[in-house]
Amino acid sequence: MRMDSMKNNLLSLKASKFGNTLRIDLHTPDYNFFDDNKIINFTKIEEISRRLIDTINQAEKRSQGGNSLIKDLQSAGSILCDQLLTAELKDKLKSQRTIENLLLEIDDSLVYIPWELIYLGNDFLCLQFNTGRKVNVRNCGNIEHRKISHPLTMWLLGESQNDLDHVEKEINTIKQLVSAINMDQKRIELTVDSGPLSQLTTELIQERLRDYDFVHFSGHSEYCQDNPENSGWKLTEGYFTAQHVDDMTGSVPMPAFVFPNACQSARTQSWDLKDNNVFDLARAFKLAGVKHFLGTFWNIMDKSGSDFSIELYKNLFSGKTFGEAVRLARKKLIETGSDVTWASYVLYGDPDEKIIDIESNSDSFQIKPKKPDIDAFQNNGISKHSEPIAQKSKYRSTLSKVKESIRNASANMPFFLIGMIIFIVCLIPVSLKIMKYFETEQFIRIQAFESKQHIEKEGLVDQLFFELSEIIGESPFHQKCPMDENDDWSSKPLGIAIISHAQNNDKDRFIADDISSCLEKKIVDNTRLKVVCRINEEIIPVLKELIRANLPSAAPASQILPQLRFANLILYVSLNHMTSPSTIVMKLVDLKQMTYIQLFNEDFNEQEYLIHKNTAFSIQLIKFLQHHYPLQGFIVKKQPGIIELNIGEESGVSLNQTFKDLDNNYAITVSEITSCTSTVQILSQKTIESSLRVKCIHTN
Q1: Tell me: the pLDDT tens digits for 91-121?
Q2: Averaged over 272-291, what is the pLDDT?
Q3: What InterPro entries does UniProt report for this protein, alphabetically (predicted)?
Q4: Which residues contact 582 (CB under 8 A, 6 or more apart)?
């Protein structure tokens, strides 16, 4: 038995939440990379997801289904698709139909969304791909997975409680499937606890659960929305809950695969770990170390659930991967059933792994030697179809044969040598081409590997920036010039830090530092922002140390780069030489609003940059900052000959700047500045009113 995986056939969709922004990264097997950002109303998404589950639960309770429920699913799936995916991302996904496996790498705050039911291109994702989930849980520590060996151990648990007619059929059929796979070799050691004589208790499950590689439970499960940690499997007496699973974490490794085939056994909320609570069964089992977990989002019909389970194990025991086994079981239910039980199942874990590889087992498939054709041979093994041997050959002496061979060899020697020389001469260019081919292949593989590492590194950078934004919070700049909390017009003090990617050699390091220096000058000359620091170091160690040093519990003396605490914005600039041509990536993080924006990702021409400096990415940055962070305020004080604004040097005001009101009736110029206010002169004879909104239009 092997836990096989074929990563060259795996599409990865990574979804991350930054404030009200959803970032999705799409990784293809050939290391192509696409990323997208979209402003999302997550409250609406949560409402759509909850309404979808509640609607289906009510329909299942009333035994309603058929086409109307399918249409409801399609409608909800289409809404989710439009809300979560941009048009460009939809096209990218549609173009990947030849790839079989889709790994959904999602933030712990996004697990409640039924991603598998996104309806794209006239079908659900879970029917287009072999889907599986990987949840990116922050601060959860190391998770130890079970090491499994041959033969596998499996525990079948059944708890019908007299109202689930198909539980015993399900258990008995799985037993028959195990017996069939064990016919030629012992692959699975099976233990069954089901039927009227079984007495399943919480203590029994806690005691024996970790003795098995795979655990299957068939029965009732309940989900407690108000107290999810009390969600669990219904037993003869009491419940086996998520809290019980959490209590078992950290000692003996948990099973590699757990499948509770019961209602709402995988229903979940956000897996946010800030308060370290247990939330539900899916989260509890995954964080306890269960590598693959399969459960249901909503209530399921007894017969359909049993049929799905049987079809699943048929596929798994025949050597199918987890993802393919689940997808084929879904399709089987669609062909034979009228409800939507097939859509309820959700798989946590790599869809491209398998638990049994039948073909790899030499004992199962031995090629027997072909039986010889006895009739084809007669005396002393001579075939009756053989041609008669020439009579003179029988009497030729051995000595004459040797002499003749020597004469023939001597006569042919010159031709042989000439042939060898020609062969060697022809072989040299062919050998050189072969060597060049392998060198090229090796170079391509190295480039692909380094490109993949770069993509993974950028993903880690994104996550660290988000964690840093949660820790740092609001900038102390705001405390120097207090403003009305309800004033969303006036420009508050704004600081920006520039972090450039440290490269591998002195030349690249010089270029990275020169780019950040150029950007600093452009920002100071053309925007109201203050550059509080500029860093040219390896980004990941810096961010990790900043997170550690800026925790509330950290001593002030331990803080590195304390000036970063004065930054509302962080500009991250990275040069990527793993692509041809090289590219430059520029991202902006708003620490207060917790938004994450990719401003630029284009080809980088080193020679052109060194000559002109005023490159497209700096122009694009300045336009973005001027548009999203303008300089504006109110007229707050008016005396004869004196007009005062409520913004000053801390907000970015400088001498001789020109302001205008929104209707362009007045033009005023800054003549004096203090930290929090500024004095202006009106350029016309018109009477100006207090509380008038003005905006900077020109900087000298």
Answers
A1: 888 888 788 999 999 888 888 889 999 999 8
A2: 71
A3: CHAT_dom (IPR024983)
A4: 575, 576, 603, 604, 606
Reduced to 3 states, what is the DSSP secondary structure of residue 639? strand
Is 407 a residue whose pLDDT tops 90?
no
Domains along the chain with CATH numbers: 7-136 (3.30.420), 152-360 (3.40.50.1460), 454-628 (3.40.50), 632-698 (2.40.30.20)
Average pLDDT over residues 339-352: 90
Residue written as tokens 């860093």? 535
| Residue 20 token pair | 């009200």
Distance CA 225, CA 193 (A): 29
Tokens at residue 505, please? 């050699």
**Cα–Cα distance for residue pair 152/188, rounded to 1 Å:** 5
Q: Which pairing describes strands 693-698 and 632-639: parallel, antiparallel, or unpaired? A: antiparallel
Return the closest-CA partner of residue 132 out of 324, 334, 355, 341: 324
Contact (CB, 8 A) for 49 and 268: no
Q: What is the mean pLDDT of the chain?
A: 75
Residue with tokens 């979209």: 38
- How far apart (Å, rounded) are the C-alpha atoms in residues 423 and 503? 49
Nearest to 69 by CA among 346, 344, 347: 344
Evaluate if pTM is beyond 0.70: no
Q: Give the model's pLDDT for residue 396.
A: 43
Helix (H, G, I), strand (E, B) or coil at 158: strand
Q: How far is CA 148 from CA 151, 255, 409, 442, in A?
A: 9, 9, 63, 34
One-letter amino acid at 23 equals: R
Q: Tell me the three-class secondary structure of 20-86, residue by residue.
A: CEEEEEEECCCCCEEEEEEECCHHHHHHHHHHHHHHHHHHHHCCCCHHHHHHHHHHHHHHHHHHHCC
Cα 98 vs. chain centroid, distance in angstroms? 19
pLDDT at 124: 92
Phi, psi for 481 (deg, rounded to 5): -130, 85
Cβ–Cβ < 8 Å for 587, 599: yes
Cβ partners under 8 Å of residue 270, min gap 6: 108, 109, 110, 111, 112, 279
CA 629 to chain centre: 32
How far does CA 338 lie from the centroid of its chain?
33
pLDDT digits (tens, 9 = 90+) for 295-336: 988 888 888 888 999 999 999 998 999 999 999 999 998 888
Is 70 exceeded by the pLDDT of residue 551?
no
pLDDT bin (cut points 50, 70, 90) of residue 469 is: low
pLDDT at 273 over 70: no
For the cut 90, the answer to whether the pLDDT of residue 226 exceeds it is no
Beta-ladder partners of 124? 119
Burial class of residue 427, CB neighbours in 10 A (0-12, 13-18, 19+): exposed
Say if residues 112 and 23 touch (Cβ distance below 8 Å): no
Q: What is the pLDDT of residue 560?
A: 52
